[in-house]
Amino acid sequence: MTECAAVLPKQLPTDFHRPVFCLLGVAFDVIDMPTVLGRLRQAVHERSRLVLSTPNVNNIVTVQRNAAYRDAVAGCELVVPDGMPLVWMARWLGIRTRRIAGSDLFQLLMNGEAGPLRVFFFGAPEGVAQAACERLNRDGGPVSGAGWHYPGFGSVAEMTAPEVLAGINAATPDFVVVALGTAKGQQWIECAGAGLAAPLLSHLGAVVNFVAGSVRRAPLAMQNLGLEWLWRIREEPALWRRYATDGWALGGLCVRSVLPLVLRRLWRSLLPVQSSARLDLAVLDGGRKRLTLSGHWLPGDLDPLRQALTSLTETDGAVVVEAQALGWVDHNFIGLLIRLYGHQRKRGQRFQIDQPSAAFARQLRWHCADYLLAPLAVTDIHFTKNGAQAWKQ
């Protein structure tokens, strides 16, 4: 296999105007399925990079213990909840969101909802990616199989070798669907992304099995009731241990994080706070930016913050957020800060929250977003020769 030149997709500016919310440390997009399909269609048409993440309960549990995976998700262009327990928890907090299952999304793609697509399958158990690719081409629908690659059980460095990426690019896919396991799959996307010409990248492990027919999806009624995990155990008995571990961990998160936020929401409904949001943006020597935030921030106060984040990320430079007088904030506010954190990390720029107030630090902790309080330095991010971010092993 020889390396070939590839036209890489455009990297669009981070969109801070799209609505987001923080749930258990992850900034999710407030979006519906038709809009997701439209975003994918637009990215393919414009040849612009879009990394889609679809966190489920297992992914949320992984976020709590794997900082590299957590940070990678923070930098994705589109993050949607795939799992009814996450949707239920969001609704307990007054967040209107819907489940966007990766398998449902891919079925709509197969139905032609985003136009013709060429899909490359990377990973999955031996023979499964090939079967999925052959099935797409046999069906003759709007989604065709551009190719497949079974990398075995090697390291991410081996899986991102130039000849591997060149082989994927030679197949000219629009969408690379990865199935390597939660953390490893996202790691591969980060390390390989800068060398891939396909505009769409996503880790959709179970989707490859569903397309290949090696695993059947749960009946719709079980999906709507949040019981798809029972069906998956029936189909793949080895999964029972993972579901038991994840369920126990999620219960702990509900007690430590979701319950305090539910009680806070009830308290604020009885004793509402008054808006006193204040913002100041300054550019310092060396291109450093200082964003000073203070007062109580209500949902209607966020437009100036969105404008400020858009302005300060137009050029590279370290960002320091001064929060010593910051009061009440909500999940939307914290979601925007996670997006800023993800942007700075992708660009290899510093991010720091300076002197956070006790109230703000407590709210970050309840949202499982207190990792934002640890300064992100340029030395925390490493780049390979082709510019892709490499994770610490």
Description:
The structure is a single chain. The chain is α/β, with parallel strands linked by helices. It has 2 domains: about 20-240, no CATH class; about 280-390, 2-Layer Sandwich (Transcription Regulator spoIIAA). It is built from 16 helices and 14 strands. α6 links the parallel β5 and β6. The protein is globular and about 60 Å long. The two termini are about 25 Å apart. Residues about 380-393 have low confidence and may be disordered.
Return the domain count.
Answer: 2
DSSP, total strands: 14
Helix percentage range: 40-55%
Shape: globular
What series of H and E elements makes up the topology? Answer: EEHEHHEHHEHEHHEHEHHHHEEHEHEHEE
Q: Tell me the Rg in angstroms.
A: 21 Å
Q: Treating each run of at least 4 consecutive H or I residues as one helix, how many helices?
A: 16
Strand order of the largest sheet: 4-3-8-7-5-6
Q: Can you give the mean pLDDT?
A: 91
Terminal CA distance: 27 Å
Strand content: 15-25%
Largest sheet: 6 strands, parallel
Low-confidence stretches: 380-393
| SS-based class | alpha/beta
Summarize the structure.
The protein is an alpha/beta fold.
Q: How would the blueprint of this fold be written?
A:
Layout: E1 20-23, E2 26-29, H1 33-46, E3 50-53, H2 57-65, H3 67-74, E4 78-79, H4 84-92, H5 102-110, E5 117-123, H6 128-139, E6 143-149, H7 156-159, H8 162-170, E7 175-179, H9 182-192, E8 200-203, H10 205-212, H11 220-224, H12 228-235, H13 240-270, E9 278-283, E10 289-295, H14 302-312, E11 319-326, H15 331-347, E12 351-354, H16 358-366, E13 382-383, E14 389-390
Parallel strand pairs: 3-4, 3-8, 5-6, 5-7, 7-8, 10-11, 11-12
Antiparallel strand pairs: 1-2, 9-10, 13-14
